[in-house]
Write a structure and sequence with these properties.
This protein has nine helices and twelve strands. It is globular and about 55 Å long. Helices cover 34% and strands 20% of the residues. Strand 8 and strand 9 form a beta hairpin. Helix 4 packs across helix 5. The strands form three sheets. Strands 2-1-10-11-12 form a five-stranded parallel β-sheet.
Length: 267
């Protein structure tokens, strides 16, 4: 049995248009074969709910770089059913003493560098950086577990931010457009590890083959855990695999996603 863990932007969604048109046929095969498809993204729950409805998938998903996992209310299996939220149960992977936005403000004060986090950006600012619609940009600002911020110039500056984040029990991960301040206990890898355990309990007598797909450094965390790990080429950059077994897609973006998944599930 296959399980697919996938990043969204630049992977299953086009990095410019956010379209998944090139993957529609493969998504039809995924649904027909009842393959769990789990989004693992830096996006918020409000953003992901809209996307998975359009994708017509009904499985758990990971938001804000592994800050939390959301299960549909009627999803089978054994998981905590305590915090119902808009038809989903929320499972935070960390309970930090300070909110991420407050930590970033404190790091900004300590460094003397004005760090632009999402909590201080207007909807118009988010639109200018991302190309999202006004509704999508508003949803992108609804952060519960993390704080994306614009990466300041200079490697030494970023190293200082990373070092200070650790003193607040946070860490910094880099995505395609922004850096993200997240609690130390969270992360895409920890979220995928949780879900792998969940599915193994749910299907104890079925061999599981996990597929991971991503295009950014913040995806390495979970690609190191999947049985088949695929880096999706993107315009302007192709990341180097950290393990020889990792695959690099031949095509770019959504077309690369579709081709690689098709080769595995419909050989």
């Amino acid at each position: 049995m296959f399980i697919i863990f996938t990043d969204l932007d630049g992977t299953l969604l086009d990095s410019d248009t956010y379209s998944f048109e090139a993957a529609k046929d493969v998504l039809t095969s995924v649904r027909a074969q009842n393959i769990p498809l789990v989004a693992v993204t830096s996006k918020t729950v409000e953003e992901v709910i809209q996307i998975i409805r359009a994708l017509d998938i009904y499985h758990p998903f990971v938001v804000e770089n592994g800050g939390g996992i959301f299960f549909p209310e009627t999803y089978p299996g054994d998981f905590p059913r305590e915090q119902a939220d808009n038809g989903y149960y929320a499972i935070p992977l960390a309970h930090p003493a300070m909110r991420a936005s407050h930590v970033l403000d404190e790091i900004s004060r300590l460094t003397g560098i004005r760090l632009q986090g999402f909590s201080h950006l207007t909807v118009e600012d988010v639109i200018s950086y991302t190309g999202l619609s006004p509704e999508e940009a508003a949803n992108a600002r609804q952060r519960r577990f993390s704080e994306p911020f614009i990466i300041p110039p200079g490697r030494s500056v970023l190293r200082k931010i990373i070092r200070l984040s650790h003193s607040f029990n946070y860490k910094v991960v880099r995505g395609g457009r922004f850096a993200h301040l997240i609690p130390m206990e969270s992360g895409k890898g920890n979220a995928v590890n949780y879900l792998l355990g969940f599915y193994r309990k749910m299907f104890p007598d079925v061999p599981l083959i996990s597929i991971g797909l991503g295009d950014s450094y913040n995806d390495y965390d979970f690609l190191s855990m999947t049985d088949i790990s695929i880096i999706i080429r993107n315009k302007g950059r192709t990341l180097k695999p950290v393990e020889n077994r990792w695959i690099i897609s031949k095509k770019y973006g959504v077309e690369g996603w579709a081709e690689e998944v098709r080769k595995i599930i419909n050989p």
